[in-house]
Amino acid sequence: MKILDRRKMIAVNGALLALLAVSLVACALIGPVAIDLKRALGDFFSPDAEILFRARLPRVLLGAAIGGGMAACGVVLQAMLRNPLACPQMLGVSGGASLGGILGMIFFPNWLLPVAGGFLGEISWVPLAAFLGALLSMALVYRLALFRGRLHPYHLLLTGVIFNSFVAALIMFLNSIVDFYQAQGLLFWLMGNLSTRAYPTVAFIAGYVAAGFLWLWSHGVRLNLITLGEEAALQLGVEVASVERQVFLATSLMIGAMVSVSGMIGFVGLMIPHAMRLLVGSDHRLLLPASFIAGAIFLCWADTLARVLLAPAELPVGIVTAFFGAPFFISLLYREGRKLPV
Amino acid sequence: MTRVMRVIAVVFLMLFLRQVDAAAPPLRLVSLAPSVTETIFALGYGGRLVGVTTYCDYPLEAKKLPKIGDFMNPSLEAVAAKRPDLVIGVVGATDPVKAREMERLGLKVVLLPLANLDDILKSVRAIGGLMGDERAGKDLAAKISVQVDEVKKRIGHAPRRRVLLIVGHQPVIAVGGRNFIDELITLAGGTNIAAGAAQPWLNLPDEYIVAKAPEVIIEAGMGSEREKANKRWSDLGSVPAVRAKRIYPYSSDKILRPGPRFGEALGDLARFIHPECFADDKSKRSGC
């Protein structure tokens, strides 16, 4: 295997990180409400500071964490399942998480969960319910795709996709029996939506995503070999089954955590990996971090558009990602197709 | 007799029967909206309802009536099966394609506008007229007008307060302009901070709430207790409503229904926005 060019690694990731830093600052400064930057930085108790630091910044950071996590999950799923259409939605985990969250919202809307015996405040029960939904559906899909101790990519993909549509049907069913108020909130889950969360929640999600990402990154070389095909990878000494299991577990935990606060944001996990593969090549040691940062940048800007396009109303960010993602993805595919030999 | 003659005879018969229908008040009603159901009950003609939507839960008797589907999506078959002599829906809420289908099935369909107070008063009178009881319609409309006037008088010259009225938390779903609740807020002496929005309901970002600094926050329909309602807002400490703990949960669906309880809903809202004007002790009603 070709030795990874360290200079390229540093150059690509450095450039992307710089772009991410610029994006984070820019997105935090753009919003439906104009703020006085001098007052926001000078007087911490001014409304301007509250808008910048309490309402906008945590949301921008959350968007970056989720965008990055989705893209990273997309990369490894496409590699592991050897399928260009694989994305976080296809494991069925995000559907399960949404269902969990919605059930939590319908049946325990006012439950609050004390954190560390109430010392760290209380959090809503809904994200936890979503996370439990993710874990349960993960276990189910995993079990259904497991034959004689081996995880079968083909079964995993199909089971995940079909489980997701089953869950979508359940969610639409719930949507038609709940009352007006709840139906409004439910729709935002389905479309994917970022909203302001308290810093502890943002830190929790970001920590989860970062840990999962590092876990996945540590399998970079093995993922490279797995993309060559299962047999080749086995011959080169990769324990394919073990890697697959770890990747599945890591992505599921990440997706569960992300969907629990943002609903089903589509397209980031599908599109960013493909775009980055074209730009930086398919060595996962580079592709993974590059996709992570690019995903973070993309979702930051998509959410900024979602916040300002119809201001003061907000669009679900899933609309923006799909609206810009779909044409981009199709043009990418078309350009790829033209390169095919005659 | 030729076929043509037969057809003409049938057409005449139908026209004749329609004429008779129009003269006699309808006895089998189907309501396609909770507000219409409430109005029919308030006029004293609830007994004539043979079908209502699954959303129709007020008054309690409405719950027991046969259902013809939900508010957004009534079942054509279920409506036709009730053989109603009048179907009443709402302009802008009842699907016009469905209404036309019902007419094609030979049903008489009336759609009434309920977009603001003026519409509500007109529609209440119109339903009274349709029942063949214009008196009842006028009386109910007058009753609502009196309730509205009483609230206006109570509030008097009290200063307008900035109000945020939401029906959802995560995300925040607020009442925009083009929503009769916006008018309710205005009549109750408030200014809806999201009134500038073109949407009747909108997802409102936290920063907008901070920037518009509402003095009163009303959380409708969530049935949450007060303490929990306050908790969600604790991060937005610069908002006057949060600082003064003027966040009111309001579980009643009154304000969601542009119907005969408009006046009551207005009274409730006015109490939230200007509690000082409703003090028992008249001397304490300063500024009203």
Binned, the helix content of chain A reads: over 70%
Distance between the termini of chain B: 79 Å
Computed over alpha carbons, the radius of gyration of chain A is: 20 Å
The CATH topology annotation of chain A reads as ABC transporter involved in vitamin B12 uptake, BtuC
Major sheet summary line of chain A: 2 strands, antiparallel
Outline of chain B, from the CA principal axes?
elongated
Largest sheet of chain B: 6 strands, mixed
Spatial separation of the terminal alpha carbons of chain A: 30 Å
Q: Describe it for me?
A:
The complex is a heterodimer of chains A (342) and B (288). Chain A is an all-alpha fold and 342 residues long. Chain A has a single domain, classed as ABC transporter involved in vitamin B12 uptake, BtuC. Chain A has 14 helices and four strands. Chain A has a two-stranded antiparallel sheet. A two-stranded antiparallel sheet of chain A has the order 3-4. In chain A, strand 1 and strand 2 form a beta hairpin. Chain A starts with 5 loop residues before the first helix and ends with a helix. The model of chain A has no long low-confidence stretch (mean pLDDT 84). Chain B has 288 residues and is α/β, with parallel strands linked by helices. Helices cover 43% and strands 14% of the residues of chain B. Chain B contains twelve helices and ten strands. In chain B, the strands form two sheets. In chain B, strands 5, 6, 7, 8, 9 and 10 form a six-stranded mixed β-sheet that branches. In chain B, strand 5 and strand 6 form a beta hairpin. In chain B, helix 6 runs antiparallel to helix 7 and helix 7 runs parallel beside helix 12. Chain B is elongated, with a radius of gyration of 23 Å. The termini of chain B are far apart. In chain B, 45% of the residues are buried. The model of chain B has no long low-confidence stretch (mean pLDDT 87). Classes of the chains: A mainly alpha (342), B alpha/beta (288). The interface between A and B is large, with 37 and 40 residues.
